[in-house]
Inverse folding.
């Protein structure tokens, strides 16, 4: 009985140690495979957005440009990018331009309106879809983005990535790793016989939808039938006669999951060895367990050290690639932040006269009270000094509030998005601009809801948006006989709407179309460089919102900013 207990303890502990060791290795390997997959996707994820902004593509979709010219542009871009294909669809889903226009498998003239990525982007979202190409018969990942003109979606840009090289690298590695989509279909795998198999049998509705989307044309989508649902994290599963430890992780930005499987045969083999040794030499079981434990720990340490060096080397290479590909994005982000800061400093310079006047008044009053106090002291009337000192203290607090507003406004943005009350941001902007409003005799009207209007934003940058729009309104009313600024804060569906209107002369239609383009300005030379509204547009887009300008029937112009309400407030 004691010998049996010793055998059971030895077998059980050996199995647990082996599983723990394999799980640690599996977690590190899964992280590496996840990084390599995301790096391969992120390399091209920006491409549709960049192409959607090009005027040749927009003109071709709108019908005012040449589709062949757009195809030549797509061909040139894709030659540099190295994707499988880059193409443009109109609102009906018809391909009007493609990088492979001059090949036998050209997409031009093909209708892809049945693809989910087309409908996702037509609704204003990024499309993300894996399937077998109906034109080429080659599988790939399709990433799409909408093409907009005047805030209207007029088409879709799509890039197709073929991940065959990545999949081949996985197969050459000799490990068991695969990716499954939301339906449980295996799309990428190191085991060729598992390609397009499913983790569980598909329902009739799922099969009908996949067939309708023509996602896996010609594939039976037979199930591996693992026997139950796989939860996120780790565990064990059986595929046929094979037993595996698994680690699974959701891939950010998609509904895919990546799996790393480790065969249980190593665990079983080690348990058998320990059992044999304990049966032959049960009297030495404790010494053998200690020896094996020390040996296993040493081997595990060596393997972990080697694995760490390998992972560190691969991570270094991946980081270099990712850093290079994100360099442009970081430079653009840095440029925007510098423009925001420069805009704030320029605004402070333009408002300096009004602010100086606001500070000079309390300074003059302080001088008067100080002179009066001096006379009281000379005449021995010190009992009346309290009132003078109280007045001086009140005036210094007023000056401190003004300089505090300047210090707060001139600070740099941290870049961190957090819950922000739009009413508080507007109050801060108006406090800073109040001297200029008074100097220019501008009447202010505010109409807003009583409740807080919370948005996910950066307080510094949302204040800059308010300041930019209000200052533009003041500049527009410079020659108006009656200056009135009206600010309305309302909600509609799940958005906060801020409308800022003026009594200026309004804007020409040509100016409205180019208002948010960089370096476009309607001001006289030397009065501006045309970056304020462009930066404002970028900030609002970063916060998931939109901005537009239009002329009002009653006269003057109106800027309308829409920002998503926080979920807690919309629920």
């Amino acid at each position: 009985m004691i010998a049996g207990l010793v055998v059971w303890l030895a077998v059980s502990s050996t199995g647990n140690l082996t599983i723990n060791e394999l799980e640690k290795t599996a977690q590190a390997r899964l992280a590496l495979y996840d990084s390599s997959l995301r790096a391969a996707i992120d390399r091209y994820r920006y491409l549709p957005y960049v192409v959607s902004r090009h005027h040749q593509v927009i003109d071709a979709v709108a019908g005012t440009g040449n589709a062949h010219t757009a195809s030549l542009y797509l061909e040139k871009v894709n030659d540099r990018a190295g994707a499988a294909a880059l193409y443009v669809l109109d609102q009906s889903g018809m391909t009007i331009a493609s990088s492979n226009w001059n090949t036998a498998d050209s997409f031009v003239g093909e209708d892809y309106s049945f693809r989910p990525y087309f409908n996702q982007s037509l609704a204003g979202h990024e499309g993300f879809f894996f399937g077998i190409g109906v034109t080429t018969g080659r599988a790939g990942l399709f990433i799409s983005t909408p093409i907009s003109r005047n805030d209207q979606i007029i088409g879709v840009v799509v890039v197709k990535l073929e991940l065959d090289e990545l999949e081949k690298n996985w197969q050459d590695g000799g490990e068991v790793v695969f990716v499954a989509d939301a339906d449980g279909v295996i799309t990428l795998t190191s085991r060729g016989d598992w390609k397009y198999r499913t983790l569980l049998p598909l329902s009739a509705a799922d099969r009908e939808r996949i067939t309708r989307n023509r996602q896996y044309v010609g594939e039976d989508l037979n199930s591996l039938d693992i026997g139950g649902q796989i939860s996120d994290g780790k565990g064990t599963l059986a595929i046929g006669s094979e037993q595996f430890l698994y680690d699974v992780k959701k891939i950010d930005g998609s509904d895919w999951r990546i799996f790393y499987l480790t065969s249980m045969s190593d665990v079983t083999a080690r348990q058998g060895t320990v059992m044999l040794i304990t049966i032959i030499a049960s009297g030495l079981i404790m010494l053998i367990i200690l020896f094996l434990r020390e040996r296993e720990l040493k081997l595990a340490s060596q393997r972990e050290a080697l694995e760490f060096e390998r992972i560190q080397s691969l991570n270094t290479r991946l980081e270099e690639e990712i850093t290079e590909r994100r360099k442009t994005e970081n430079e653009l982000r840095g440029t925007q932040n510098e423009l925001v800061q420069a805009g704030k400093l320029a605004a402070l310079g333009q408002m300096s006269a009004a602010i100086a006047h606001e500070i000079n008044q309390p300074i003059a009053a302080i001088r008067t009270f100080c002179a009066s106090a001096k006379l009281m002291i000379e005449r021995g009337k010190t009992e009346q000094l309290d009132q003078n000192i109280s007045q001086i203290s009140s005036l210094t607090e007023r000056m401190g509030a003004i300089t505090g507003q300047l210090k707060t406004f001139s600070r740099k943005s941290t870049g961190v998005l957090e819950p922000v009350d739009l009413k508080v941001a507007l109050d801060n902007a108006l406090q800073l601009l109040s001297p200029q409003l008074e100097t220019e005799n501008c009447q202010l009207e505010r109409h807003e809801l009583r409740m807080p209007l919370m948005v996910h934003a950066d307080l510094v940058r949302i204040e800059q948006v308010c300041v930019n729009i209000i200052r533009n309104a003041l500049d527009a009313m410079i020659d108006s006989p009656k200056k009135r600024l009206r600010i309305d804060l309302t909600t509609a569906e799940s958005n906060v709407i801020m409308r800022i209107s003026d009594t200026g002369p309004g804007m020409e239609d040509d100016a409205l179309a180019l208002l948010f383009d960089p370096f476009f300005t309607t001001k006289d030379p030397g009065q501006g460089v045309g970056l304020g509204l462009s930066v404002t547009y970028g900030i609002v887009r970063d916060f998931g919102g939109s901005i537009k300008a239009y002329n009002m029937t009653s006269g003057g112009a109106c800027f309308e900013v829409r920002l998503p309400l926080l979920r807690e407030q919309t629920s």
